[in-house]
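User: Can you help me understand a structure? I only have the sequence.
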Amino acid sequence: MVSNPERRAALVDAGVEVLAREGARGLTFRAVDTEAGVPAGTASNYFTGRDDLLRQIDTRLHIRLAPDPEVVADLMTRPKDRSLVTAFMHDLMARATRDRTGYLALLELRLEATRRPELRASYTKSVRGDLEEGIEFHRAAGLPGGDETVTVLYLAVLGLLLEHLTLPDVLDGVLPGVSVPEGLVERIVATVVPEAP
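Assistant: Let's start by predicting it. Here is the structure, written out as tokens:
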């Protein structure tokens, strides 16, 4: 395999674009080469196979969609209450909305994992790691609520992201006077996260 980190990153990002637009069935090395604007056969020099490319897309998306450390540091100067949790959820929603393609590619990875046991194991480990990291962050930050709060919040916001990024009209006007997604983020946090004592 060729070792040119910049070219590999460009190919993985091209894979993200193809995956989000065409789905896993459309993710071929030829499609990645075309998206990246490189000669045919280039991707096959960088990845051992389709599963390798999918795993590298998963890794890349966790970097692309990760919170900005400066934003986290700034938010952590605030009181450790429900409003801080709300601010973190708004940041998550903003990151997913800004990189809609990346988030849609994550959803496609989930679907592909249901069909491929070898990918399912890898992707389950990756997503479970994210959830555990969120639980640990919540604990360490001293935010209100415990592990159950974080888990329910994770599930609720995941549902909101799914609807907002795929079928946004589903949520328009469902709660009169509540904006999508901002107002729904606030409603979710107010419903799930207890007031600080």
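Now, to help you interpret it: The CA atoms of residues 81 and 196 lie 6 Å apart. The radius of gyration is 19 Å. Let me know which part you'd like to focus on.
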